[in-house]
TrEMBL record:
CDD domains assigned to the protein according to its UniProt record, in alphabetical order: SIS_RpiR
Domain of life of the source: Bacteria
Protein's UniProt name: UPF0309 protein QEZ40_002687
Protein species of origin: Streptomyces katrae
Signal peptide: none
Residue stretches making up the SIS domain: 36-219
SUPFAM superfamilies tied to this protein: SIS domain (SSF53697)
Length: 251
């Protein structure tokens, strides 16, 4: 099989997943957008969290052109990227009990705020405890995960539960256990993961739904413009000044 056919197969697989998420998760995506819009309109704050490669879709909605200025990344040191040395440390930290509580206790998140937790498997201690602790202090929790992992794997949290069990809204990315869309004779491991593509699309769809809901409520969405277009910096400066008490990524 030629390389171009494999590339095309990956695009087909990703498009199929996106279409499935659009058709099957649409109502819950709109519900998540409404929850976020309510938080914005009522003066609350927005946070997103993910560890490892699940941090990428979370970072994708923070401080970016066309995005809500109020979305903040809830960082857990050592887990947010592959720049940690060794890279395997991030995976190890996801399994540490108590880390999520310490992070939330030292964060500005409080009752009434919204936290989006992204975890493909939803099985590790960190995302499970993050959701449990967040709800305990009164946050609304939106989980973005692959529900398939709850039946195809075992939880690594002492409770035996998964992220999906501790959320107000669950958005299912439909990613198969193992996160690899392709296989080929002569290659022992499956390859071509699509979770980042699909999960990032889910996040942007939620943000779009939130923007529409805000307009329906008569509230101008606090969106950022590209700094690479004329007037972008001036626009963003005004937005950040108006909402500065709810934007934490610039401090």
């Amino acid at each position: 099989m030629s390389e171009s056919k494999l590339a095309g197969q990956f695009f087909d697989a990703a498009i199929g997943l996106l279409e499935r998420v659009r058709d099957e998760e649409g109502p819950r995506i709109n519900e998540a957008g409404t929850v976020i819009a309510e938080a914005v309109a009522s003066g609350n704050r927005l946070f997103a969290f993910g560890a490892g490669h699940s941090s990428l879709p979370a970072q994708d909605v923070v401080y970016r052109a066309g995005g809500l200025a109020l979305m903040n990344f809830l960082a857990v040191p050592g887990t947010a990227g592959v720049d940690v040395m060794p890279a395997t440390l991030g995976s190890a930290l996801e399994r540490v009990d108590g880390l999520a509580g310490a992070v939330l206790d030292s964060s500005p998140a409080s009752a009434g705020d919204v936290l989006v937790i992204i975890s493909l498997s939803g099985r590790n201690a960190l995302p499970v405890e993050m959701a449990m602790n967040a709800r305990a202090i009164g946050l609304k929790v939106i989980g973005v995960t692959s529900v398939a992992y709850a039946t195809g794997t075992k939880s690594r949290h002492v409770s035996g539960t998964f992220l999906k069990d501790h959320c107000d809204i669950v958005l299912d990315s439909k990613i198969a256990v193992g996160d690899a869309e392709l296989s080929l004779d002569g290659i022992d491991a499956p390859f071509a993961p699509a979770s980042t593509v699909v999960t990032s699309a889910i996040m942007q769809a939620v943000m779009a739904a939130a923007a529409g809901e805000l307009v329906a409520r008569g509230v101008e969405p606090p969106l950022l413009r590209s700094g690479n277009v004329d007037g972008g910096h001036e626009w963003n400066g005004r937005v950040m000044q108006e909402y500065g008490d709810r934007i934490f990524f610039r401090h």
